[in-house]
Design a protein that fits this description.
The complex is a heterodimer of chains A (113) and B (113).
Chain A (H helix, E strand, L loop, with lengths): L3 E4 L2 E4 L4 E8 L5 E7 L6 E7 L2 E5 L6 E7 L2 E7 L7 E8 L8 E2 L3 E5 L1
Parallel strand pairs in A: 2-11
Antiparallel strand pairs in A: 1-3, 3-8, 4-5, 4-9, 5-6, 7-8, 9-10, 9-11
Chain B lengths: L3 E3 L4 E4 L4 E7 L6 E7 L6 E7 L2 E5 L2 E6 L4 E6 L8 E8 L9 E2 L3 E6 L1
Parallel strand pairs in B: 2-11
Antiparallel strand pairs in B: 1-3, 3-8, 4-5, 4-9, 6-7, 7-8, 9-10, 9-11
Classes of the chains: A mainly beta (113), B mainly beta (113).
């Protein structure tokens, strides 16, 4: 595997389900990010982990819970989501001191029914 | 005023045309200026980044930054159908723990054969 990978690529879940999104980077980076991409809106930064510590929680609802067990892996745990949470969820990584140079994964297309 | 404004398009041009994509911004603290390309059903891909004002060229792509006007551009010469994608501008100015990218909404480009 190369670059940034995300699984699953597509996810349909009910409002009462619990699911997790996974991201793995193979670039030797030490900062990882979760973004939400909705139609007609700019990319929204959700969480930032730098050197495995969370440094940004951009007023994200608690139904989204991130986890970063090491510098190569990032998870986004989802529970009791709302239909408006349906979006493309993107993971990215960078070197901690080069945050302007981020590399993105292909995203997980999430649909909440 | 939004921090980053990008004409939402869409934009359609014939093959071989010169394409000009633009963003304006309001935050004078921005120092790094990025252009990402996003193909359908894929994550954004970093095309180029520029530090401060000036031009940067990479093959058929040229990025320009005019900090005095708070205006950035991406020029694509000899456009090809494979350039058809959504182009996102992004900017970053803080350093350390507060560093984050601010994105435009993106413009969808279609290059007609």
């Amino acid at each position: 595997e190369t670059g940034v990978t995300q699984t699953p690529r597509h996810l349909v879940m009910g409002m009462t389900n619990k699911k997790s999104l996974k991201c793995e980077q193979h670039l030797g980076h030490n900062a990882m990010y979760w973004y939400k991409q909705s139609a007609k809106k700019p990319l929204e930064l959700m969480f930032v982990y730098s050197l495995e510590e969370r440094v940004e929680n951009n007023s994200v609802p608690s139904r989204f819970s991130p986890e970063c067990p090491n510098s190569s892996h990032l998870f986004l745990h989802l529970h009791t989501l709302q239909p408006e949470d349906s979006a493309l969820y993107l993971c990215a990584s960078s070197q901690a001191l080069r945050m302007w140079e981020q590399y993105f994964g292909p995203g997980t297309r999430l649909t909440v029914t | 005023q939004k921090e980053v404004e990008q004409d939402p398009g869409p934009l359609s041009v014939p093959e071989g045309a010169i394409v000009s994509l633009n963003c304006t911004y309001s935050n004078s603290a921005f120092q790094y200026f990025m252009w990402y390309r996003q193909y359908s059903r894929k994550g954004p891909e970093l095309l180029m980044y520029t530090y401060s004002s000036g031009n940067k060229e990479d093959g058929r792509f040229t990025a320009q930054v005019d900090k005095s006007s708070k205006y950035i551009s991406l020029f694509i010469r000899d456009s090809q159908p494979s350039d058809s994608a959504t182009y996102l501008c992004a900017m970053e100015g803080e350093t350390g723990a507060n560093s984050k990218l601010t994105f435009g909404k993106g413009i969808t480009l279609s290059v007609r054969p």
